Amino acid sequence: MTWQWKTIIEPFKIKSVEPLGFTVRDERLKVLEQASYNLFKIPASKVLIDLLTDSGTSAMSAEQWAGIMRGDESYAGARSFFVFEKAVQDVTGYKEVIPTHQGRAAERILFSIVGGKGKCIIANSHFDTTRANAEATGAQALDLPIKEALDFEKPGLFKGDMDVLALERNLKEKGQSVSMVIMTVTNNSLGGQPVSMKNMKEVSNICKKYKIPFFIDAARFAENAYFIKLYEKGFENKTPKEIAKEMFSHADGCLMSAKKDALVNIGGFLAMNNTEWAKRAREIEILGEGFPTYGGLAGRDLEAIAQGLKEVLDEEYLNYRLKSVAYLGEGLRKHGVPIVEPPGGHAVYVNAKKFLPSIPVEKLPAQALACALYLEGGIRASEIGSLMFGKHDEKGKFIPASMELVRLAIPRRVYTQSHIDFVIEVFGEVAKKKDLIQGLRILEAPEYLGHFTAKLAPVS
Ligand code: F0G
User: Fold this and answer.
1) pTM of the entire predicted model
2) With bands split at pLDDT 50, 70 and 90, how would you rate the model's confidence at 7?
3) Is residue 11 part of a domain?
4) Which of 320, 385, 374 is nearest to 349 (CA)?
5) Domain annotation covers residue 18
């Protein structure tokens, strides 16, 4: 059914609700100070609308909750594992299915096999944990997005694509030191932009030519499939499931954080056809995650993932999902807020560098904007900028990231259109007062994934 109405309706009704965290401005200022201006340290009870992440924040369906009750908690060979394995095989087509407690565990296991000193892993863009896990093995994590992806103002249909010329050049130069190519769908680090089937096919062919394994980081595979249906010629009449299957058919395997497009609160997996790698992955898994038929999860979680993988490919749901994110983007544009164009599948990304030109990148404009948003309306968003990706050189000098973005990630099936209208209204207020926003400086941060725990303070 195609939805011809202007009003976006959520394609579900609500059975169970939880209260929002209402606070007043003075209280929020204290909360911010106590959290050292790090939004990860704010108690969720003090957040009104939580757009920190779309990860693990989905509302589950009645059928998923029914699956929770059906869960078989046998240590080995649980019935729920086979339900899960079949659901993953049904979408991906890969034989070997290895559950993990979340996406980064799948990354750690995979990179223990293909990473290491002297190796290079190439992606359209690595997400922060993917990069950190690759680098933690001593490998280099190289991003090769298309140039258009870095031009945030310019709309384009498949800005998640990989630069195939740069890929071929790197494979020629680096040879077998490139141990894997990964396509992140959608490209979370650069605006949640989709990857076209054409690009997936081209990358696959290049990888075959150079005999390099090609994997998909499938966290948001269903949203990517729906973008292909909407915008890529030849896919108009295919179902999201057919498109997803075709995407996976171009790669040798995938890793997935089920906390996104499997519509669950915890879980992940590795899936592949290479039985030798799968054997090694299971050995590593037993050390850290658990027996390979539960992999750090409970049987009930496996049931919920299996059901979520089916529900996420529903066309009514995907249409609502992409339209509601685009609606937020449209509302922000009306207030003159510069966003990464076009809005992504799971989030709208605000270009803080452009929105706050008077705050230099060393003073973390994206984090400053995220804090201002919380102070104004109790909305929590995440920074994708120099706090997340900034580095220190050998002399200890801070090298800022190339982008300063604030991501407004929309949890799946959680907020309604009026919540989104509220976010747009708050942004309007922030835009009016933007000259009062102060920059920030880092007081302390650990070497890896420092943004989760860093302490910051305002600078005038
Ligand atoms: N890959 C991508 C593309 C991701 O976005 C994430 C997580 C991961 C891997 C890691 O998965 O969290 O289950 O361990 N992204 C979250 C986010 C954290 O907010 O975008 P995980």
Assistant:
1) 0.96
2) confident
3) no
4) 385
5) no
